[in-house]
């Protein structure tokens, strides 16, 4: 069984943004002309969209990042104009379907993949609200109410956008870091293929035989949507299993963890926060407190020690016993989440500034023996993935 991450625009749906975007901008500007100058609105919308793609803060959703730029520039508040925006997506946006083309090969691919037991998720760039993405899937003949997608992202529920590898890390984190083969399928080398490969995923390029690979890196497997499943059948599972070993992948996973937890915990009631699935298992609050204390008392001190000393010795620590000793079940889950986020931001600030040679810094670990900083950070990301999966199961 393979998890297929399928791009939407110009993969499952013919929708070139050079023709779609002008109609979108004109329609929204026209609908909001009574409250904002159309030219200024379009300029602000493009700037806010660019902000979503470059802002790497894990504690803000893409919607929050968009709002922080778009509405202040227009002197508006979302709550005052939300009815206009809702009307645009309900009455005007559907007409943009005329600029798109359904692809029967995409419909056939999704149907056939599900019939044979593969899993399908829509890895479109989440720069639009949920309704816009769901409508475009319906235009593709692949509506969300008729197909069992593993995940469909949107700017309400995601914190990173393509081409940031953290988008793909957050995607897998929201799925609980599934085991087994994963393949990203898309038409855009810069948006789909390269960032997925930076995370360590296999990728399949939907393109014509005559298209030249623009690089960087080796040319990926390529073909049409019809070619994908036959190609898949000829690949060993090991060739499609993610390999999260390079610095770019480790940084993406580190960034994705507080982001994914933010989405998973959204709407979680105080009762749910302290409910243990079984008496021997941890509640969401206990998981968050554990992540917070490990980040503050283990990960950060170890990182600083390695960066400030030559080949330091790193002692082992038994942190699981803290759950009962520190009575995590009685602590505030949301406060723990915020404290973990702030500690992780501090760790990311250090990791983001590592030079290539810093990843090779030596250290001596009480359990793993002589090793290097790359492996130590890999242990942190493995710990992250374990507890994100645990959180999803607990919820």
The separation of the N and C termini measures 25 Å
> Main β-sheet: number of strands, strand sense, barrel status?
5 strands, parallel
Mean pLDDT: 95
**CATH homologous superfamily name of the largest domain?**
HAD superfamily/HAD-like
Distinct helical segment count? 16
Query: What structural class is derived from the secondary structure elements?
Result: alpha/beta
Strand order of the largest sheet: 4-1-5-6-7
DSSP, total strands: 10
Beta-strand portion reads 5-15%
The helical percent reads: 40-55%
- What is the CATH top level name of the largest domain? Alpha Beta
| CATH fold group of the largest domain | Rossmann fold
Give the uncertain stretches in residue-range form: none
C-alpha-based Rg, rounded: 22 Å
């Amino acid at each position: 069984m393979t998890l297929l991450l399928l791009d939407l625009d110009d993969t499952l749906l013919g929708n070139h943004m050079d023709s779609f975007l002008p109609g979108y901008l004109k329609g929204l500007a026209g609908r909001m002309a009574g409250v904002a100058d159309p030219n200024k609105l379009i300029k602000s919308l493009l700037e806010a969209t660019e902000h979503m793609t470059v802002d790497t803060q894990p504690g803000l959703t893409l919607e929050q990042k968009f709002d922080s730029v778009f509405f202040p520039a227009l002197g508006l508040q979302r709550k005052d104009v939300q009815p206009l925006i809702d009307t645009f997506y309900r009455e005007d946006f559907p007409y943009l379907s005329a600029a798109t083309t359904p692809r029967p090969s995409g419909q056939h691919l999704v149907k056939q993949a599900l019939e044979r037991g593969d899993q399908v998720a829509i890895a479109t760039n989440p720069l639009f609200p949920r309704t816009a993405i769901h409508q475009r899937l319906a235009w593709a003949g692949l509506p969300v109410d008729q197909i069992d997608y593993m995940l469909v992202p949107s700017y309400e529920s995601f914190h990173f956008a393509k081409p940031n590898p953290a988008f793909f890390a957050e995607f897998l984190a929201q799925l609980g870091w599934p085991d087994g083969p994963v393949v990203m399928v898309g038409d855009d080398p810069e948006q789909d293929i390269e960032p997925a490969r930076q995370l360590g995923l296999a990728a399949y390029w939907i393109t014509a035989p005559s298209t030249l690979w623009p690089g960087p890196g080796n040319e990926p497997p390529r073909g049409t949507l019809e070619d994908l499943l036959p190609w898949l059948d000829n690949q060993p599972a090991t060739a499609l299993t993610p390999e999260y070993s390079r610095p770019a992948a480790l940084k993406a996973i580190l960034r994705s963890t507080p982001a994914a937890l933010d989405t998973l915990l959204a709407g979680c009631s105080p009762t749910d926060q302290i409910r243990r699935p079984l008496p021997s298992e941890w509640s969401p609050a206990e998981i968050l407190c554990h992540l917070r204390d490990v980040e503050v008392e283990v990960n950060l001190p170890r990182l600083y020690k390695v960066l400030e000393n030559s080949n330091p010795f790193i002692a082992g620590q038994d942190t699981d016993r803290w759950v009962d000793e520190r009575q995590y079940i009685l602590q505030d889950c949301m406060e723990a989440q915020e404290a973990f986020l702030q500690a992780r931001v501090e760790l990311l600030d250090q990791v983001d500034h590592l030079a290539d040679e810093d990843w090779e810094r030596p250290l001596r670990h009480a359990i793993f023996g002589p090793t290097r900083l790359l492996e130590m950070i890999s242990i942190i990301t493995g710990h992250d993935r374990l507890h994100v999966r645990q959180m999803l199961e607990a919820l």
